Amino acid sequence: MSRMGSGTAGEGRREEGGGLLPYTSRASVISRYPPDSEHRAPNTAQYPPRTEQRPPNTALVSWQTIGDLIRGIRMLLARANVPNSPREATDLIAAVLDVPRLWPALHHDQHANPELVSRVLSSAERRASGAPFAYAVGRAAFRHLTLEIDDRVLIPRQETEILVEAVLTRGVLNGGLAIDVGTGSGAIALALASEGRLDRVIGTDISAGALAVARTNASRLASVLNAPIEFRHGAFFAPVADLRARLIVSNPPYISSSEAGALPAGVRDWEPPVALFSGPDGMTATAEVIRGAARVLEPFGLLALEVDSRRAGLAAQIATDTESYNDIAILPDLSGRDRILLATRTDR
Predict the structure, then answer these.
(1) Domain 152-345 maps to which CATH number in 3.40.50.150, 3.90.1150.10, 2.40.440.10, 3.40.50.300?
(2) Are 156 and 52 in contact (CB under 8 A)?
């Protein structure tokens, strides 16, 4: 369940589009690009070279300024029929540099050294091959954090930021252990460790590749974390079965196998299937998390779960049927669709 999380063909979380995420700490362009709908090569070849679209070999020499770089990347993307190639060229350069999106346009005459040109060119070629923007530049914004990502993990979405906000607003992050089930890139776990006041945070995932990404992010962000964080390999609650948590949070896969064909190509063909699909009805992982959390939560602990808006009522019914939760509530996302399930563990 690499970065357990998903959405449906009609769910904004797995669609292209969207705007600036509300929690980024600066006007970084990387927050503007959720996954997009261009095609990609099969997963068996990661970012295959696109020699027919590569600028002349003199690029590293002839592109001497940021302005040269903008023009060259714009031409490369335009030849690949990437929409809005002038904007994307500037945005891609800003994302690689991790600077505000207007910075390249304001620094046309600044020298572009060969190392920078090479990095930008590599990202542009990935984008031209069909990679979603975040995969092309290798990073994505999540709340106040900038995460390194690749196609071993899902690209963080705005709906998942709302999940973290719902937990913070609930006011439960004062000590205790928090467990992020299906942590993927570590986005939720790292946000909780940086914004909450927890004693400890653990992220679990069935994908060893996803955990490698999460650990890289934790190492990079160590200076902003307020709680120790660790990542454990295994499915659902197997790695933490002997623990008791004050908070369990998860963004499980919730697309049914029959809905795969309706997904945007940029999601279906690029993001890890194990993190997207959850059985014939899309509810397998959600049900497992709800029932498993009842065994791991301490009395009055909180379960916070992102759900498919079309199946939110079913998720709430599963929580009710366990007879293990009180105060079961469904909260909307920014589009008004049912998105977040909150439930408080009974006193047993």
Answers:
(1) 3.40.50.150
(2) no
